[in-house]
Every structure is written in C-alpha cells, then in structure tokens.
Specification:
The protein is mainly α. 76% of the residues lie in helices and 0% in strands. The chain is globular. The mean pLDDT is 91.
Length: 127
C-alpha cells in the first residue's frame, strides 16, 4: 500500500504551479495597460490551462476516465478563479477583480484538461 506522500507526489508540479499563480495574481504588481484591449486575459487563460493540465494528468495517466475527473478539476479551478479575483479586489492595490478574468480562467481550465486528456491518449496510442 502506498504512503500518502507517494500518492501526492505526482501532484507536486500542480502545487508548485499554484504557487507561481499566487505570486503572479496577488503579489506581482500590475503593469501598465496593454495597447491590446483585454490582453491580460491571455495570461489568465494560459495560467489556468497549465494548472488544470497538471492537476488532471496524474489521474488520467492512472486511467481515471475524463468524465469522472473533469468535474473535480473544474471545481478546483472555479474555486481558485473566484478566490484569486476576490483576493485581487480585497488584498492588492494594483489589481482589481474582473468577471472576464474568471471567464478566461475557466476557459483555460477546460482547455487544459482536454489537452492533457488528448495528449495522454495520443501518447498511449503511440506506445
């Protein structure tokens, strides 16, 4: 029987990425507005796509069906998207909460889970 630490080890990259997200979304000062309207949404999308893929990959690799895994990963992403926006509104002076950021977060999360699932399926088909 595996120890609890060895079960959590595959989620280490996801936890580390979450730490990067905390820094970028709460502690890094917001820069000047981009010349391209809503360009920051690309960053939100990419952050959450990577995090969702890292969260989903270990379970997908073990063979858990996507239909069982997706609700848990998307729920975690929704909680963090909401929490990060509230945190930006309440605890930072250079950032603000935006609904479109949360929409970009969730679009990225859905994309990340799907890319992880398809990437692992392609890898298995190749081997």
């Amino acid at each position: 029987m595996k120890s609890n630490i060895s079960r959590l080890l595959p989620y280490g990259p996801a936890m580390a990425w979450w730490g990067v997200m905390v820094y970028l979304l709460w502690f890094k000062a917001g820069g000047p507005p981009s010349a391209i309207p809503h360009f920051d949404k690309v960053g939100h999308f990419a952050l959450f796509a990577a995090w969702a893929a890292l969260l989903a990959a270990p379970a997908l690799w073990r063979g858990q069906p996507l239909r069982q895994l997706m609700p848990a990963v998307l729920c975690a992403c929704l909680l963090w998207a909401t929490g990060s926006e509230l945190g930006q509104a309440l605890f930072t002076t250079t950032r603000s909460a935006e609904v479109l950021d949360a929409v970009a977060d969730m679009a990225g999360a859905l994309t990340g889970v799907m890319l992880a699932a398809h990437g692992i399926a392609l890898w298995r088909a190749r081997v």
